[in-house]
Structures are given as C-alpha cells and as structure tokens.
Amino acid sequence: MSELVPITVARGDGIGPEIMEATLRVLQAAGARIAPEFIDIGEQQYLAGHSSGIAPEAWESLRRTRVFLKAPITTPQGGGFKSLNVTIRKTLGLYANVRPCVSYAPFVRTLHPKMNLVIVRENEEDLYAGIEHRQTDEVFQCLKLITRPGCEKIVRYAFDYARRHGRRKVTCMTKDNIMKMTDGLFHRVFDEVAREYPEIETEHLIIDIGAARLATRPERFDVIVTPNLYGDILSDIAAELTGSVGLAPSANIGDHVAMFESIHGSAPDIAGKGIANPSGLLLAAVLMLVHIGQPAVAETIHNAWLRTIEDGVHTAELHGSLSIGRPFGSMDFADAVIERLGQRPQKLAAVHYGEVDRDAPVQVARVATVAPHRRAAAAKAMVGVDVFVHAAGVSADFLAGQLSALLTPPFALQMITNRGVKVWPGGFPETFCTDHWRCRFVAPQGQSVTHADIIGLLQGLTARGVDVIKTENLCTFDGERGYALGQGQ
Ligand code: ATP
C-alpha cells in the first residue's frame, strides 16, 4: 500500500458540509489513499474581514498539498466581496478548467441521451485579465490578451487529456475569422500541437457555428478546447444540455495546484435537510483521484456510482418514474454507492481510467505540468504608431487636416478609423462616429521609427491641444506585420 496523499479539503457553506461528508465517506470506503487537511473558506471568512473568503493561513495548506477538494460556498450579499474561485484560480495559476458533460439517460431527462464530452477552457487570459479603461465620454475598453505560452499550455493539456482518457477527437473553437491575431494565434498553436498527436482527430470550428452545433448535436463532440470567454459560455450550455447540472464536476488545473469541485452552488434553500445530492462533489473527487495517480480507486467509485443511478437510487431532485422507493438522503445515497463498490453499470457506459505506473512517485502523477516552449526573441522593428485621440463633434476630414498640420518626421498620417472602421481617407458619410479616433502614423516604406520619434510626434500633437488617450506601437516581428489592418483597407 503506497503512502497517503495529503489533500486540502474545504467543507464550504449551505449544503457543502453534508455533501462533503457523504463524499469523504465513499472515498474512505473505496480505499482512496488520501490524508485530508481541513481549511475554512466561504461565508464566515468573508464576514471575518477576508475579502476573498479565505483566511491567509489556508494558503499554506493549499501550497503544501497542491490538491484541493472544495465544496460550494456562499458569497454574502453586498459589495466588497471578491470571488473566491477567481482569487484561487489567479493566485495559484490554475490555467485549465476541465468540465466533463455527460448524459445519464433515461435516468436523468435530457434531449441528448448520447452526449459525453469534455470542455477544456483556458482559465487565465482573454478578456478576463480585468484590464479595462474608460477612454472618452463615450468609449470604454477591455483588453483581450492571448499569449503563446498560454495557448501552448491549454492546447497541449487538452491533447494530453484526450490521449490519457482514450478520447478520439479534439475540437478547437475560436473566432479567428474576425480576431485574426489573438484567436488566430490560438488556432495556429492548436494546429501546431495537433501534429504531435497524430492518432487524435482534430477540427476547428468558428465559435458561433460551434456553439450552435453543440446545442443541437452535442454527441458529435469529444474534447473541446477554447479560450476563456467562449469556454465559460460553452461549458454552461453543455452542462445544461445533459440535464444534470446538479451532477456535474469540474477541475481547475495548474502546474502546481489543482482544485476539484461540483459546478452547482451552495443551495442554501435545502441546506441542513440532509437531502442534497452529493454526486457533483463525488464525481469531482473522482477527477481528483485520477489526477493524484489513483485511477483504480477512481474507476471503482465512478462505476459504483453509475450502477447506483441506474438501480434507481435517486436523491429528491432526480426522483422520477425510474426511481426506487422514497427519495434517498445524502448519506443513504452515499451508503448505496458504497454497497455497490466493485460493481459495474449494466445500462450506462462503464468508465475506465487506465493504470498508473506503480513505481512512479505520487507527485509525478499529481502535477500535469506542460512547460511551454520558449522561443528565441524575434527581430522586432517599429514602423509606426497608432495614436488614439478623444475628439467630440469633429469630422474625420477635419481631424485629418488638423493632425496633418502637426506631423513631425518621419511620420505620415496613413489613416483614421472610428470603432475600427476606416473613416479617412475615403470614408462614408453613413458611418456612425463616436468621440474616439484611432490615427495611424507610419514611416515611409521600409523605414523604422524610434521611441524618440514617437515622443516627438506626441509632443507636437499635445502641444496643440490634441487629447491623446493612448498609443500602440506598430511593429514587425521577423518581418511579419504585428498589427491588424483597419477595416476597409
Ligand atoms: P450560486 O449563486 O452559488 O450558484 P444558486 O442558488 O444560483 O447559487 P445553486 O446553489 O447551484 O445555484 O442551486 C440552484 C438550485 O438547485 C438550488 O436552489 C437547489 O434547489 C438545487 N440544487 C443545487 N445543488 C443541488 C444538489 N447538490 N442537490 C440537490 N439540489 C441541488
């Protein structure tokens, strides 16, 4: 028998303590080799003045065990409280959000009985960096950041996940027909990494048609990998389609720490009654056991749970015509799973989690590290600058005239756009314009510019009252253009 693996456990709020007790009871009966350390998170911690719902000393346990089994918490009403999940995700670098979405028809009602897919969502980048600014009276901005290391990590994680779990296809979804640089990078990295996994089928779908197909034919998907915002939306759609949101687990994986939880909340309306379904948390614990290198225990529990469901042992919210007897309480349900340890489902598909190398130290299996490949820096040349200007009640032609009179060498005014639409030269009178103008200044073909050139230009503009909001340098990298052309160009 190998050593016990320390894990950090939080009982949470609402139904959290009940479903955690039921879950740990099953884990213990199944012989999971874990040593739980308990921490307090949630409502009491918020009310005690910890704005993220976690006490400072709890971090020490998380960083030591590196594995977190978390029950749902209640965030108190009112302002000033930060999301605990966002705090943990960002602080500990949990870059992958993994959400299996499975139908359990006919035991759980769904329009899509054959659905069995996994969404791998990038968790740290994209529009979620929280870099937002008000720039003018009329215009607000949120920066979308996509990085090459971030793409490599999440895409490789998705392919590794597919390989480890015997899944045959990985679908990438982006909007790279519009966001050619950011989403284009994600798609490009997907194509690059895919070459290393020739046994896995791949496809790319534009997110809008991808989401539509997911909603109508979810059974055609296997593993889906996607940037943060799309993944956020898709994973809720997919969980809802299964009809069993209350049964769904999720994992947040980082290089150092991983967190496992149910996707439902703390359900205060049924807390303390002993009737909550512990399945979402139990299946999260199954994901955790696979992650820490105990796939055999994970498989035993998962198959016993499937058998329990198909035997008609259901908690109140699932109770229906295929249920036996009265609704089971949380603990009775756990005991029913324990009675079935060692059994396999007969109608639902059984799971198989494979073997782990018995000689491998537990830590190897615990951390799914995917080191991004760091490249040599590209040859970078600055060839111009986009100057964003706040100007209300002016026309593009007027602004172009004003700016052209204030030019300093080596710049020429190449174009002006408003909300990304080219309005000078050759704009259309029908184009609606706000008070926010992007003015592109470039050096003559092939010539590069310096920071001093840009500062000189800005000094000239601002000295004459031009309200410069911000600038973006226009660069080439190894000769390749590092900026989008304006629409209409
Ligand atoms: P949150 O904002 O934390 O997500 P919420 O009330 O919007 O909270 P949930 O806590 O997930 O969402 O609960 C929604 C409803 O689903 C609850 O009122 C409860 O009746 C039911 N529910 C959620 N989880 C369970 C569960 N494990 N077992 C039984 N019913 C549940």
Automatic annotation (TrEMBL):
Gene3D superfamilies, A to Z: 3.30.70.1570, Isopropylmalate Dehydrogenase (3.40.718.10)
SMART domains xrefs: Iso_dh
Record key words, sorted: Glyoxylate bypass, Magnesium, Manganese, Metal-binding, NADP, Oxidoreductase, Tricarboxylic acid cycle
Known cofactor(s): Mg(2+); Mn(2+)
Catalytic activity: D-threo-isocitrate + NADP(+) = 2-oxoglutarate + CO2 + NADPH
EC number: 1.1.1.42
Protein name: Isocitrate dehydrogenase [NADP]
Species this chain originates from: Tepidimonas thermarum
Lineage: Bacteria, Pseudomonadati, Pseudomonadota, Betaproteobacteria, Burkholderiales
